[in-house]
Design brief:
Blueprint: H1 7-37, H2 45-74, E1 84-85, H3 86-96, H4 98-104, E2 107-112, E3 117-118, H5 122-139, E4 145-153, E5 156-163, H6 195-205, E6 209-214, E7 220-227
Parallel strand pairs: 2-4
Antiparallel strand pairs: 1-3, 4-5, 5-7, 6-7
Helix pairs in contact: 1-2, 2-6, 3-5, 5-6
């Protein structure tokens, strides 16, 4: 039977393309402004060049994540291929992000059952763990602690990222996993806005579910549940 045309797909693709274009224009506009500023009298050229370099890196990270998400959605990335012991990956991510966390005043921890594995390729599990940890480093606030944990609960394996930071309002919790969504203007200045969307997509592709809970002043918990 011929496939049924779904106009909503074109609408989704068009909206995604427009969002990507908008997100790329922002760092490019900043780069142009910074370069123009180097011609001003008494301009601190080295500082402006450093800022421009940071914007280039941001644009590069955005492009990488857009391509990765596109690969996931087109089926070219196999998410579930074997199983991976979770705790060692969580510990590696915490160690690798240690310097960035220290600069942000955030403490990262990893804990849990060393015997629990997840239905994800190592790369996919690392991508999930990195995005969960980076989200906490960027947004939980100075003095916060974020713990990545892995547990077995009945017939499920549960990967959780919980922090005791500033949190977000309850009415936007469900939107945290939307592409490019930022809860406030502070979030718009950091990250690509794709990290948690990638987390949700990878977990769902592996047959799992993602949920978030918390509130302003009550931190944030992101719970990824996988069938064993």
């Amino acid at each position: 039977m011929p496939e049924t045309y779904d106009p909503s797909f074109d609408e989704l693709r068009t909206g995604f393309t427009a969002a990507v274009s908008h997100e790329l224009r922002t760092p490019l506009a900043r780069i142009l402004a910074l370069l123009d500023s180097t011609e001003l009298p008494d301009a601190d050229v080295p500082a402006l060049v450093d800022q421009a370099r940071a914007e280039v890196e941001h644009a590069g990270a955005l492009i990488d994540e857009v391509l990765f998400l596109s690969e996931l959605e087109s089926g070219r990335e196999v998410v579930s291929l074997g199983r991976t012991d979770a705790l060692p990956v969580l510990e590696e991510v915490v160690e690798e992000l240690g310097d960035a966390a220290a600069r942000a005043g955030v403490e990262l921890r990893a804990e849990g059952d060393p015997n629990v594995d997840l239905p994800l390729r190592p790369r996919m599990l690392r991508m999930v763990a990195e995005n969960l940890a980076e989200n906490a480093v960027r947004y939980s606030g100075h003095g916060a602690t974020c713990t990545l944990s892995i547990r077995r609960t009945g017939d499920f394996a549960v990967l959780t990222a919980v922090d005791d930071g500033v949190g977000v309002s309850e009415d936007v919790l469900a939107r945290l996993f939307e592409r490019f969504y930022r809860a406030d203007s502070a979030r718009s200045r950091r990250g690509t806005g794709l990290g948690l969307a990638i987390v949700k997509h990878v977990v769902a592709a592996a047959g799992g579910e993602v949920e978030a809970d918390g509130g302003l002043g009550r931190g944030l918990r992101i719970r990824c549940t996988f069938p064993l």
